[in-house]
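Sugar ABC transporter substrate-binding protein structure dump, as promised
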Amino acid sequence: MGAAVALAALAGLTGCERGSSAGGAAPSATGPAGCPAALAGAEAAVRRAERTDTVWNGPTDGPRAVPGKSLVYVAQTMTNPGVAGTVRGVREAVKAIGWHVRVIDGQGTPAGIQAAFGQAVALRPSGIVIGGFDPRLTSQQVARAHADRVPLVGWHALDSPGPSEEPPLFTNITTRVGDVARISADWIIAHSRGRAGAVLFTDASIPFARNKSELIKKELATCSGVRLLAEENIPISDTSGRTPQEVSGLLARLGDEWTHSVAINDVYFADAAPALRAARREGAGPPYNIGAGDGDPSAFQRIDSGQFQTATVPEALIEQGWQIVDEFNRAFSGAPASGYVAPVHIATSANSAGATSWDPPGYRAAYRSIWGK
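structure tokens r here:
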């Protein structure tokens, strides 16, 4: 979601619509499941995604460490928790492989990111990370790096994982949006036992977010007992100003029919909390909220303390930082990209053990073994 957040912040988005409500009466959240087959499938998917005893399913072979390399990480903004998490992972990994990295903060503005990228190119590093922004916003700087044969690796730079010819990225690292959308909707189906009145929070001005929300709706629709009561279109750049008012309106209009929520990013629930608290809703009660976003530390804290968020679908940010370094090592060695895409995970208070991020086991040892370190 990092690139989507960047696009919202960078474009100074306008045209903010009020949330539109889906018609029809909401179902009761009690009684037998309204979709036995869909419920069974959702429950199985959720059980798999909630596991924390997973084994490393990423690369186990590849080129040995190429010595003496330097990277520059161009960050959309270091206030973006997803970007900051991957920076932490990159710093860990370059220390392990024996390289150097410099981080340049784009400060979340088009001019700032363009200047940061220009500075990165001028430093003539071995490789450049495009951290959380669309490289098409810096097309001149990308073209310069490409002409200088400096490989580019993106994190949330494009909608899809893997290599890209236009813009020219050795690879882009992100989870698959379809997987994230499906598992967040499956969680609602499973948690409600197939009987829910749901609200979806999205930002329709961002193509990535709009696509994610459409996929969430498609999966929710597989269960006839789950009704979409409202879809609230609130730009990410305006969540703090808009979300409390919209949530208050939803509470007045929907009352107890509103049992569950899903948002394309956890930030909506940070901003929904004051309105829910003012309405004397209990933090651990309905509406039960899941974020289909990065899984930043504040989301884990809300989940662990039972404060108006029940689950999140987090990215393994530090692991992805290590993957960034491994992908560069493959580029420097003339090897193809690994093709690895991390599986989706669901974090709840029952499985997070008080952690503030999703940090699966096994990847550090695997990458060290590949690099001969």
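The first strand starts at residue 20 and ends at 21.
lmk if u need the other ones
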